Amino acid sequence: MRTLPAAGHEPVGVDIKPSAFTQNVGSIADRDFVKMCVTGMDAIVHTATLHKPHVATHGRQAFVDTNVTGTLNLLEEAVSAEVGTFVFTSTTSVFGRALTPPAGAPAAWITEDVMPLPKNIYGVTKLAAENLCELFHRLFGLPCLILRTSRFFPEPDDRQETRDHYADANAKVNEFLYRRADIADVVSAHLRALEKARPLGFGRYIVSATSPLTRDDLLELHTDAPAAVRRHVPRYEEVYRMRGWKMFPAVDRVYVNERARRELGWQPRCSFADIIDTLADGGDFRSPLAQTIGSKGYHEVEFENGPYPVESQAPGRGE
Q1: 307 within some domain
Q2: pLDDT band at 286, cuts 50/70/90?
């Protein structure tokens, strides 16, 4: 919403709460509201979702209502209103169990061809929404691109162990090696998707920072990640030493963004190597956009043991 006007678009913001960037306040689970919002639009960028931080605080039905029914409402009204482009913000969380190899196995090389194995209601409903997008492309020819975004949230890590052993910036910079993107690059991927949806028709794309790591590193990454990183970005050790930082001892997966770069013409600007150079020059590892937007948060209340509560196994809650 901050970037679209400068790119020549006239965006209309939709959200469940008012903001400076929201013109229509309501829920995408409300079909009549969606119909009103979609009328007269040329394109839809569908980012609305219940997210992993909601798994412990919202029931499974709420996830279905927003992530599945809400997506269906948008797709059906898009076809009815003859909207020409649909871009859906999905998540690398759809890969689920495929992201964690067994002990002794190499780290996982994650491309769009890896079979998703969702591990919670968030992943299940996002994958279902993706499949609805594909269905509407096949049935109605709706140009629809799916962006499986990796981490870009500014909140502290949800794992207590990570928060206890790594400074927040340290942990986030580590993740740029394999599972994080700067929000400015996530935004630019969406802009490219808006431009490419009609000629491409349909596609799924991983949106994550370009990693210096290769397939040849996968076995070592699971046993000695610092050694693998040292070969590709040797300067990181000195930069980390000056800050009292440390690399994760092991990395379990590497997200591969090659298809998005090739087919969308996407050019992410923030990589681990770029960040090391920026830090060495005394700069901030975050893009100006990331510094500007800050944290919007997922809940109205603060939780004692982290930015959001752990998943619940109670009936009707989490998974």
Answers
A1: no
A2: very high
